[in-house]
Design brief:
Subcellular location: Bacterial flagellum basal body
Radius of gyration: 21 Å
Largest sheet: 2 strands, antiparallel
Protein name: Flagellar basal-body rod protein FlgC
Helix content: 40-55%
InterPro entries: Flag_bb_rod_N, Flagellar_basal_body_rod_CS, Flg_bb/hook_C_dom, FlgC
Pfam families: Flg_bb_rod, Flg_bbr_C
Number of strands: 4
Distance between the termini: 17 Å
Oligomer: single chain
Family: Belongs to the flagella basal body rod proteins family.
Strand order of the largest sheet: 1-2
Length: 134
């Protein structure tokens, strides 16, 4: 019975981690065309790093270890009339790859849904177990 409750902890940690991943993807997509961020330079894509974490009841869950800036180079766009253009007429644009972010969003939402389905299956098994005694 204890291991059945552990499923809720594992799936819950996965849902929390994937939720943070979805937030990072949303931020990346929202800033994909922003020439300047609050730091004054182009927006840097955010990448979520997960890590395994042992649970009190045994087993392991997952959590976000860190959300770090993608250090890949900015995209250079030639636009000499842009106010942020350099002396050669190029503007640094965010290093966000919209296609990669869409794939990341689909992957994160699928993983989130899988954890929801796991919790629902565990709940159904637990309810069925309770009816066995009646």
């Amino acid at each position: 019975m204890r291991s059945l409750f552990n499923i809720f902890n594992v799936a819950g940690s996965g849902m929390s981690a994937q939720s943070q991943r979805l937030n990072a993807v949303a931020s990346n997509l929202a800033n994909a065309d922003s020439a300047a961020s609050s730091t004054g330079e182009a927006y840097r894509a955010k990448q979520v790093v997960f890590e395994s974490v042992p649970l009190d009841s045994g087993g392991a869950g997952v959590r976000v270890k860190e959300v770090k800036d993608d250090q890949s180079p900015f995209k250079k766009v030639f636009d000499p009339k842009h106010p942020l253009a350099d002396k050669d007429g190029y503007v640094n644009m965010p290093n966000v790859n919209v296609v990669d972010e869409m794939v990341n969003m689909l992957s994160a939402s699928r993983a989130y849904q899988n954890n929801v389905d796991t919790m629902n299956a565990a709940k159904a098994m637990l309810l069925k177990t309770l009816t066995l005694g009646s």
